[in-house]
Amino acid sequence: MCGIVGYIGKNNARITLIEGLKRLEYRGYDSSGISIHNGNEIKTIKSVGKVSNLEEKINPDEFRGNLGLAHTRWATHGKPSIENAHPHNAGDITLVHNGIIENYQEIKKYLIKKGHEFISDTDSEVVAHLIQEENKTKEFEEAVRDALKKIKGAYALAIIHKNYPEKLIVVKNSSPLVIGIGEDEFIIASDASAIISYTNRVLYLDDNELAILSPTNYTVKTISSNKSLYKEEQELDWSDEQAKKEGFDHFMLKEIHDQPHSIQDAIRGRIDMDNGMVLLGGLIPIEERLRSINRIIIVSCGTSYYAGLVGEYMIEEYAGIPTEVEYASEFRYRKPLLDKNTAVVVISQSGETADTLAALKEAKNKGALTIGIVNVVGSSIARQTDAGIYNHAGPEISVASTKAFTSQLSILTLLTVYLGRQRDMSMVMGKRILSELQKLPSLIEKILKEEGSIQKIAKKYADFENFFYLGRKYNFPIACEGALKIKEIAYTHAEGYPAGEMKHGPIALIDKNFPSIVLAPKDSVFEKTLSAIEEIKAREGKVVAITTEKNKDLSVEDTIFVPKTLEILTPILMTIPLQLLAYFVGTERGHDVDKPKNLAKSVTVE
Questions:
Q1: What is the per-residue pLDDT across 256-308, written as a single tens digit (0 to 9) for each?
Q2: How many alpha carbons lie under 13 Å from residue 326 in its C-beta half-sphere?
Q3: pLDDT at 450
Q4: Measured distance CA(472)–CA(39) in Å, rounded
Q5: Which of 532, 398, 511 is nearest to 465 (CA)?
Q6: What pLDDT is attached to residue 238?
Q7: Residue 459 CA to chain centroid, in angstroms?
Q8: Class of the 3-236 domain?
Q9: Low pLDDT (below 70) residues in the chain
Q10: Which of 11, 102, 384, 479 is in the most buried spot, having the most CB atoms within 10 Å?
Q11: 3-class state of residue 223 by DSSP
Q12: Strand 323-327 relative to strand 295-300: parallel, antiparallel, unpaired?
């Protein structure tokens, strides 16, 4: 969602801030702005559209200083416009905000009665005016804290004051914020991609914490009690080079090609082949409690939700534990029945997904054991779950998830074997699954070598406006993920369905202009999937089949082959051609596949 960057230190803030905004463009946005404190006053400029539009409007001679804020906005309150763009100013106060203030209308009415005038439609400007009102009788820091006590909602804030050219205040509550620690400088941002080129030393705030930064030191306090806190610094486990395109046309294509490495990183050091066991250090504190778990609920959103659906098949079949998958956005609104023998597994690439965080809090409040599967070390979900497993996939810059998804599937495979070996899974079965899992990176390399033929198929179907994506058992969720990917990237209508459900209604839509992408590996349900293909062909529907190599039992318009593996692992291999299809259809249609319209990388509002 919205991207925050802030700087205080010895260097020219403008350069760092603009570079930070460019690094955050992948999050999705519609406008941007920057404020610089030049030692005497705060100068602000804003623009609608790309960060490059903002950069063109800035006079470098006028925007010089060692303290500043910058922001990319993804509209929630008010349309994209100069007035609604951040930073927002109110008297001596300037701030940027990510999140949603739930009681802003109530506060706004109160402030209007006090004589405040508003120029935007945003909830964010209300916060600036509220701090200004408190600042009439209190010092800057106290005014911020007392204003925050009146606010309800999720927010990350960075705030500066005209009279304090060497002070930057940052606040976190259910919205991501990281503080980069440099040499006599601090860089704050919504995520580490805006920081990594300057430092790998970072500080993560927890909810309801506030940090006061000067050019040379920092203090962290609680908002409610003003109590000083000790916070341990952390090191980022990825480099600036990992966040660059490395010669690929788009980050999405680079990240598709990253998958042999990201899967290897997900499983590295976690497999004990001699005993058919899995070593998950993050689960050691809850190992014994996991033995008594008799029910699992997986909660997640978007692509991560489909990873959870695959996990449901895995865990039930091989670990024998009843498993459900819930949309995190609905989880806490349906009064879920949880107890101490239920494990709630939350999956989020960013570790900051607002809906998933809300579901996590609900699970903890009801006494369930909570486990996180996240890619970002130090993220909110990583810190708030009872235990967790990191993906180690490195930064994923493209908005549409690719390598994080297959990394999640790899982690869920490890978790399945871990839980299964605690129960009835034999050593032989554990070794078999883990042996085949270790082969996946090389099998994916083989699929990637067929990129050219997949591109030709994508070009052939690029002008179609409707698609069905069909699969059965393990590959039904992958059909849903494939449909989501082409929706995100190519802006074409697509639906993921269980192949067996076609005849129960959707088949009415099939004709020569409504092609189907069918996942048909040679597995336990292949014959059933073949029946669905024949039903489509009988109605003149075009079929692109993704199947196991050397399979001669298909007669369809186009075929994409993947290497043979265990049925439980076919979802990972099936995913790769679907990602490439979406990528090439999107580029054929002329879209910016790294920054699809209306979408954000990290969804930090409910």
A1: 999 999 999 899 889 999 999 999 989 999 999 999 999 999 999 999 999 99
A2: 26
A3: 94
A4: 64
A5: 511
A6: 61
A7: 29
A8: alpha beta
A9: 1, 26-28, 237-243, 600-606
A10: 479
A11: coil
A12: parallel
Active site residues: 2, 601
Longest Cα–Cα distance in the chain? 80
- Per-residue model confidence as pLDDT tens digits over 398-409: 889 999 999 999
DSSP secondary structure letters along 526-578? HHHHHHHHHHHHTTT--EEEEEETT--S---SEEEEE----GGGHHHHHHHHH
The domains of the chain are located at 3-236, 243-447, 451-588
**How far apart are the C-alpha atoms of 63 and 79, rounded to whole Å?**
27
Q: Do residues 326 and 336 lie in contact, with contact meaning Cβ atoms separated by under 8 Å?
A: yes
pLDDT, residue 399, reads 86
In terms of CATH architecture, what is 243-447? 3-Layer(aba) Sandwich (3.40)
- Spatial CB neighbours of 547, under 8 Å, sequence gap ≥ 6: 520, 521, 522, 554, 559, 560, 561, 562
Query: pLDDT value at position 518?
Result: 96
Classify domain 451-588 by CATH number.
3.40.50.10490
* Look-up of token digits 């009102």: 133
pTM of the model: 0.73
Q: Are the C-beta atoms of residues 154 and 100 closer than 8 Å to each other?
A: yes
Sign of CA dihedral 349, 355, 361, 362: negative
Both tokens assigned to 374: 């996240």
How far is CA 450 from each of CA 263, 406, 519, 559, rounded to the nearest angstrom?
Answer: 19, 19, 17, 12
Burial of 3 (0-12, 13-18, 19+ CB in 10 A): buried
DSSP strand pairing (234-235 vs 201-204): antiparallel
Do the domains 451-588 and 243-447 match in fold?
yes
Rg of the chain over all Cα atoms, to the nearest angstrom: 25
240, burial (CB in 10 Å: exposed 0-12, middle 13-18, buried 19+) = middle
Structure tokens at 64: 């010089």
Contact between 596 and 500 (Cβ < 8 Å): no
Closest CA to 558 of 567, 568, 547: 547
Per-residue pLDDT, 240: 59
What string of H, E and C letters represents the secondary structure of 121-144? CCCHHHHHHHHHHHHCCCCHHHHH
Q: Is the peptide bond before 571 cis (omega within 30 degrees of 0)?
A: no
